[in-house]
Amino acid sequence: MSNVDAIIVGAGPAGLSCAASMSALGLRATVLEKANAVGSVWRRHYDRLHLHTDRGHSGLPGMAMPRSYPTYPPRAQVVEYLENYAAHFRIQPVFNTTVLKIARNGSRWRVDTDKETVSAPIVVIATGWADFPYRPSWPGSKTFQGNLIHSSEFRNSSPYVGKRVLVVGFGNSGGEIALDLANADIDTTLAVRGAVQILPRDLLGFPILSWAIAQKSLPTGLVDFINAPVIRLAIGPIERLGLKRHAKGPRRMIEEDGRVPLLDIGTLAKIRDGSIKVRGGIDRFTPDGVVFSNKDAQGFDAIILATGFRPDLRNLLPDVKDVLTQDGKPLVTGQATNGPGLYFCGLVASPTGQLREIGLEARRIAGLARRYVDQEASSVG
Ligand SMILES: Cc1cc2nc3c(=O)[nH]c(=O)nc-3n(C[C@H](O)[C@H](O)[C@H](O)COP(=O)(O)OP(=O)(O)OC[C@H]3O[C@@H](n4cnc5c(N)ncnc54)[C@H](O)[C@@H]3O)c2cc1C
User: Fold this and answer.
1) Candidates 57, 72, 95, 127: which one to mutate for ligand 1, based on the most atoms within 8 Å of Cβ?
2) pLDDT per residue as tens digits for the range 301-337
3) Is the CB–ligand 1 distance for residue 36 below 6 Å?
4) Helical spans, DSSP H, in the chain
């Protein structure tokens, strides 16, 4: 492993894309993965998950998703695709190897794993968000006697049959989990604290992502302005459902706040027919439920926090200066960083689809890495 050009941390979509893109440019890369298979996070997502982005815009560099897949492939096909992708590009990650710390060592990066220490001139951090579920705390949350989990622990509705369930947060996971519960006739309530943006998954017969990509070069304000009436028409008046439309348009919300709008796949219909009840934010927890911010108390047997993820890479890079924000997010991803030969892939939300963005970033990183290795070689020679 010591004579590789690059060490890639993580064998999810981002790590695999970087490995394939680097190999296409003649770079030798090793992928270190703590799990025992590629796409480990997709293997443990909830059962009903399908891609929210269409397969045409979700394939990784050099290998599209098969045409035999449906427009929005189920989770199992995403895993199958990642396995086939790794096999096609002969990517053989070193599994069961956790990267603990990355530090600069002369002109190379030293990578300490739980097995050994390795080094290379290039390191790509493609560790995703999954290890950083965000669990806000409310007064009294420790006293809650029911079942309290983060959405990343939710698998399916069966443990919740006959229970009163509160889903906190109305992003894509919250919306889909609430839908899953309501489909199983489970008493489901959604706590929605702030204003939201909701988009149809398809518009006029085309995936919404196609529209976003077509408008990519237009200014953000203009895009949100021209789309607003179309979205209103497609989604209908959400204010009547107890929801508030965000003052920022969908694209501005992603760009400025990193928040992805909800792509509706049926949750709104369930809210309209009363199968999912909408409440406001939570003021505090009680032993048997919550008190909402309007002071209404309600009992729940289970609470699912669909409150997102907040990656924090400070433990991985404790001594590397000027590459992370104060709270541990990469300052940039898919670009050169202040660490020579150090790159991050896939760690920010994108208005044109995360998997698509991962592919674009991977290609860019491979190009930058190739140039970096060549420059280092010529400066030594
Ligand atoms: C529920 C859900 C649905 C999504 N749906 C879509 C969608 O429809 N379309 C879309 O474009 N995007 C979607 N995304 C966003 C994004 O595309 C995926 O999260 C994608 O899997 C990100 O790929 P990744 O490689 O960056 O991270 P991950 O898939 O999380 O992979 C990271 C890998 O790194 C490994 N790892 C982490 N830390 C270490 C370490 N220290 N040492 C070694 N290995 C490590 C992990 O085990 C993991 O295998 C979704 C996200 C979620 C949570």
Assistant:
1) 127
2) 999 999 999 999 999 999 999 999 999 999 999 999 9
3) no
4) 13-24, 40-44, 75-88, 172-183, 208-214, 220-235, 250-257, 267-272, 354-380
